[in-house]
Amino acid sequence: MSSMRFHWSKSLVLTIFFVACAGAVYGSGPQDGGQIYAVGQLKPVDSQTHLRVGDQAPDFILPSIGGEKVSLSGYLGEKHIVLSFVPAAWTPVCSGQWPGYNIARDIFEKHEAILLGISVDNLPTLYAWTQEMGGVWFPVLSDFWPHGKVAKEYGVLRSDGTAERAIFVIDKQGAIRYIDVHDINQRPQLEVLVRELEKLRQ
Amino acid sequence: MLRASAGRSGEPNHAFRRNCLGSGNEEKRRAHSGTCRFSRRVSGKAIWLLLMVLALAVDSPRLRVPESFAATEAPSVGGVLPEMSLPSPESPAASNYLGLAGKSSFTLPEIRAEVVIVEIFSMYCPYCQAEAPNVERLFQIIQANKSLKDKVKLIGIGVGNTPYEVGVFEDRYEVPFPLFADPDFSIHKILGEVRTPYFIAVKINQDGSHQVIYSQLGSFGDPQDFLDLLLERAKIKKGA
Question: Does the complex come out with an ipTM higher than 0.95?
Answer without folding.
Answer: no
